[in-house]
Amino acid sequence: MQHPCQRCGACCARFRVAFHWSETTDFDPSGMPVELTEPLDAHRVSMRGTNCRTPRCIGLLGTIGAEVSCGHYLQRPSPCRDLAAAWEHGEPSPQCERARAAYGLAPLTPADWPAVHMER
Ligand code: SF4
Ligand code: SF4
């Protein structure tokens, strides 16, 4: 079964993705490529494409609500790692639900998660 996030991607095109510059390759060679970010303030950068009224992260590939992937999944920054998909770990996720609603996608429910853990 496909991971529900691979059929969604809404949160990658709904919020500003801001994080400390030390998560980029300017500090950490295994971090997010700095050229995919832009300065936000003295300590933070944001993913290109997300600091605007109609955000879509530069790293997002595919069609929202159909089939998507993160082009830099292993290097994704902390806000992306921290945003839980609703009910993946047995709890609701207001951010996930708001993002999906903005794209007309129904909220995830516990039934979207099989007993066997899925890999993204
Ligand atoms: S966390 Fe939620 S909004 Fe983000 S991709 Fe997964 S299902 Fe979609
Ligand atoms: S870095 Fe990847 S997971 Fe994070 S917002 Fe961009 S596309 Fe989504």
Please characterize this protein's 3D structure.
- The structure is a single chain.
- The protein starts with 17 loop residues before the first strand and ends in an 18-residue tail after the last helix.
- Strand 2 (37-39) and strand 3 form a beta hairpin.
- The chain has helices spanning 78-82, 94-102, and strands at residues 18-20, 37-39, 44-47, 60-63, 67-70.
- With 120 residues, it is of the alpha+beta class.
- The strands form two sheets. The chain has a three-stranded antiparallel beta sheet with strand order 1-3-2, with no helix packed on it.
- The relative contact order is 0.22.
- The chain has one domain.
- The longest helix is centred in the last third of the chain and has 9 residues, at 94-102.
- The model has no long low-confidence stretch (mean pLDDT 95).
- Bound molecules: iron/sulfur cluster (2 copies).
- Residues 4-5, 8-11, 83, 85, 96, 99-100, 108 line the site of one iron/sulfur cluster (SF4).
- One iron/sulfur cluster binds at residues 12, 17, 47, 57, 59-60, 70, 72, 76, 80.
